[in-house]
Amino acid sequence: MSEELHERNKNRIKKFLLNFLSCTKKDVADGLEMDLSLVSKIIDEMQKNGEVVQAGQDISRGGWLINRYRLNEDSSYAMIICLTMKTVKIQVINLFKKVKEEQTFEVTGEKHIDCLNKVILDVKLRYPTLRNITMSVPGNVQDGKIMYVSQPNYLIGTDIAQILSQKCELPVFTFNDANVMALGYYTKHIEISLKNNSMAYLCCTENGPGAGVIVDSKIVNGFSGFAGEVSAIWPRQENEALQIQNYISAIISVVNPRYLVLSPQTNKKIDEDAIKEFVCENFPEHSIPELRFSSETEINLTDGLAALAIANLFPNRFLLNW
Questions:
Q1: How many C-beta atoms lie closer than 10 Å to residue 145's C-beta?
Q2: Name one Pfam family in it (predicted).
């Protein structure tokens, strides 16, 4: 068997164990439609390497004891980063998304990349099995390059993923923060049976407004990744409540999502009743989305980053269609 095929089969088994937590070798072989002897050989190899551990025993139909296996959740780690105008927030998570470490660093001036390089190299020394870095930025991202960002605007045109990847010798994935928040909310709060429906997530953070749109379980990026940059909607309003109404009107008219989630800044409140009244007065009843409100902006962001980070550990296992 070629090394490439072996790694592909190994990743398939890891993904299966990640989804089903603990299984017998036969469970894995049946579920993946793979040869039992091949599955047995790969699991034995992973157990020897510490990637898999025994998780109890079952009794077979013939009365034999058979072992169950699960992933060693601490055999690999991922790092998630929330980049903002003033801070760099990091978490180190294991395969089960348990936070092993988290830190926040203040950044002044044009020092974001220097700060990131230093933090990543420090974490890598303490976590030798760190496998990837997944980062959110408050702006338009295309193929790892920051195409537009309100602040820090000196990063516009910077291929931040490539710069960091070359320095730390790890895969680095970069995403728009509103899209990540949308994913975090979507995976946690939208029922499995309804995931083929559309959802828009409108957030207002210290870095400005943004929207993440999911249609048919796919993130809507647009041809250049600019989709969701609601700060460009005209005319701009001095009154914040009127500005939010502009955003809502554009989203409902263009996307017409089944769900519209509004997430204000952590330290601000929005008039939920006024928003519901505005929507009911200005849109036909059959077109009105289910309005939801979320005050867990940071949790939605870290949930989305964690989901992406674990998905990125396995080739071809991206969540949704990014």
A1: 17
A2: ROK
Indicate the length of the chain as a whole number.
322
Confidence of residue 207 (pLDDT cuts 50, 70, 90): confident
Please name the fold of domain 188-298. Nucleotidyltransferase; domain 5 (3.30.420)
Which position has the token pair 């220097």? 114
What is the arrangement of strands in the sheet containing 290-293, beginning at the earlier edge strand? 218-219, 208-215, 199-205, 259-263, 290-293
Proportion of the chain in helix, strand, coil states, percent, rounded to 5: 40, 30, 30
Sequence-ordered list of residues with C-beta below 8 angstroms from that of 251, at least 6 positions apart, any chain: 200, 202, 211, 213, 230, 257, 260
Q: What's the predicted TM-score (pTM) here?
A: 0.90
77-179+300-308 fold: Nucleotidyltransferase; domain 5 (3.30.420)
CA distances from 197 to 173, 212, 303 (A): 26, 14, 20
* DSSP at 288: P
The three-class DSSP label of residue 52 is strand
Domain with CATH 1.10.10.10 in the chain: 3-71
Bridge partner list, 5: none
- 27-31, 57-61, 299-303: range with lowest mean pLDDT: 57-61
Q: Are 114 and 168 in contact (CB under 8 A)?
A: no
Per CATH, the number for 3-71 is 1.10.10.10
Tell me the per-residue pLDDT of 225-269, one tens digit each, with 9 for 90 and over.
899 999 889 888 889 899 999 999 999 999 999 999 999 876 678
d(CA 96, CA 310): 8
In the chain, ranges of CATH 3.30.420.40 domains = 77-179+300-308, 188-298
